[in-house]
Every structure is written in C-alpha cells, then in structure tokens.
Amino acid sequence: MLTAPNPNDTSRPLFTTKQILQFYLDFGPSIFNLTAASGWNNSIPHAKFDGKFLYEIARKLLQETRLHETLTNVVIPTFDTYELQPVIFSSFKLKTVPSLDAKLSDICLGTSAAPSQLPPYEFRNGDHHFNLVDGALTANSPALLAVSEVIQQLNEKNSDFVPIKANEPIKIVLLSVGTGSSPETRRIPAILAKYFSFNDWVPILAIGLGISAGKVNDYHLESVFPSDSSSSDNYYLRIEEYNLDTSIAADNTTKENMEKLVKAGDDLLKQSVKVMDVTSFLPYEKPSEGTNAEALERLAEILYNERKLRLKRKSMEKQGRPFIEAVTSAFQMT
C-alpha cells in the first residue's frame, strides 16, 4: 500500500499510513471473518479463513500494477510449496528473472498466506507457475533479507548505492518493524523432554524454530549493525513490542481487540528504544536513542535527505553534468 502508485498521482503512494490503519479497522473483520470461522479447529483440513474477501479487495485496489511499477525498490519473501524453495520477489532481480514481475496483488496474496490461517495461493505469471505461502517460512525477519539485497547491489556497483565522495564510508540505514511478541513462559527440562514422543515434539519444534530463526537473524545483523553504534557508520532501528498483551490475538477483529492493538502501537512509540543483546538474546533499553517516536523522526530525516541527494544526482546526470562535480562546485561557490 505504501509502495504501490496512486492511480490519480503515480508519484504518490496508493495509501497514506493513516489510511492503511483505517483500512484494517474497516476491512479487518471481513478479512478475518470470525463468524464464518467459528466452528474451525486445528484438525479441520482447511485454513481457518477462506481468503475470498482478501483476494477481492487486493485485486480491486492494486488492479494490474506489477512489481516493476512500485515507487521504490521492494523485496518480498514467499515460499513455494510445489518447488519447496523460497521465492524472493525483488525489484533488483527483474532484469535477470522476468518471471518475478508479477502483479502486486498476486505477490501480496502469496506472501500473506499464513499456513492454517489463509489458504496457499496459486497463480501464473506468463509461463511460470507459483504455489505460495507466507514469506515467514522463508524469512522470519525480512530485515536480514533487505540487508543482503543492499550488499548485493553494493557488490554489483549499483550507482544508487555509491557514496557521493570516493572516500566516504558506505552507510546502511535499516528500519525493522515487528508485529509484537510475548515472553515465552514454557520451560521444558531435559529430564522431561527425553520422554517426549514425535507428536509431543511437533508443536515445540514449530515454536522453537520460529523463535530461534528470529534470534539468529539478530545475531547476524549484529555484525552489520553493532550495538555499540560508535564503532559503525550504519544505523539500525528495531521497533518491537516485546511484552505484548497475551490476550491480543492476531486474527481477532472484534472492536475491543482492534482498539487494544491501536493502543499498543501508540504506547510503543512512547517507549525507549531497545536493542537486542546477542549474548543473552534479551532486549535492553538504550537511553541515548530516546523514544521510538524520536528515533523514527531522526531516521525519517536521514531518508528524506538521502532522497533529495538521489533526485539531485539524477537531475544532474540528465543534464550531462557529473553529480559529484555539481555538488562540490556548489560548496566552492559558498
């Protein structure tokens, strides 16, 4: 919604952030229809929600818009259940893998098809056949995936990622927004687990693999974004509620639950910035960063200034004048 172009002004996004919030308040109850799902349980051989309304609204809003038309570069992970392989819909890969230039509606429906919640999503793009489920099966935390894409572009000498000055260090700025988590309270001593059957292990493995995948991502990101930011030019901001009220369910679209979610988001902005200790894998506050709201404002300013520089670069290049020469001459005049 933020990267799809608005048909009335293709330089602007389809939705503003406030409109996205209102979209979920208005249509969440239809996407996650609790009445239709009232008789569902884990033993029933189909998804809890049929996805029909989601398909309808996604196609209506995004229409024929394709991946190459997004306002900025995007990287969207999915998993193909037929090929048993990840499928990464990346703006950077379209020249070499044209089949990835699918309709945004199809990509969104594929990456949102959470197993057991929404049905797997099947579609064709030209001669290519996709059978997709939730991207979390590929990348539990898309942050690491985004950084990998940037590093690949740096290695390929993409001009959009080249510093203005030759001796200027490369700086990666990353914003990662989580969906909230609650502390895991179950403790399983080895003396008890040694008597578990396969069926006993299945739910524990599902939870454990999901949690550990996220923690390992934090471990990898520490090498690019050290907690001691003074030792790196890179900047990483993680916005996450680590103590989410356990009564708030992801698919509960009652008015009361939706209001709780909105309040949780508002309260999160007022909290101090937290970073992950990759030894204990526990978050801790970083007072020097201020609140999440303050950190977001600083990050927005960084991105705004970067965008102005990129637009300036493209403008100068169109005029046949090297961007670096134009920038340095402006400084010399002052």
UniProtKB/TrEMBL annotation:
Database matches in Pfam families: Patatin
Any single biological process term in GO: lipid catabolic process
InterPro entries: Acyl_Trfase/lysoPLipase, PNPLA_dom
Key words of the record: Hydrolase, Lipid degradation, Lipid metabolism
Keyword Lipid metabolism appears in the UniProt entry: yes
GO MF terms, alphabetically ordered: monoacylglycerol lipase activity; phospholipase activity
Domain of life: Eukaryota
PNPLA domain residues: 1-147
PROSITE patterns cross-referenced by the UniProt entry: PNPLA
Keyword Iron-sulfur: no
Enzyme nomenclature, EC number: 3.1.1.-
Chain ranges for the short sequence motif DGA/G as given in the UniProt record: 134-136
General function of this protein: Lipolytic acyl hydrolase (LAH).
Family: Belongs to the patatin family.
Free-text note on domains in this protein's UniProt record: The nitrogen atoms of the two glycine residues in the GGXR motif define the oxyanion hole, and stabilize the oxyanion that forms during the nucleophilic attack by the catalytic serine during substrate cleavage.
This protein's name: Patatin
Organism: Pisum sativum (Garden pea)
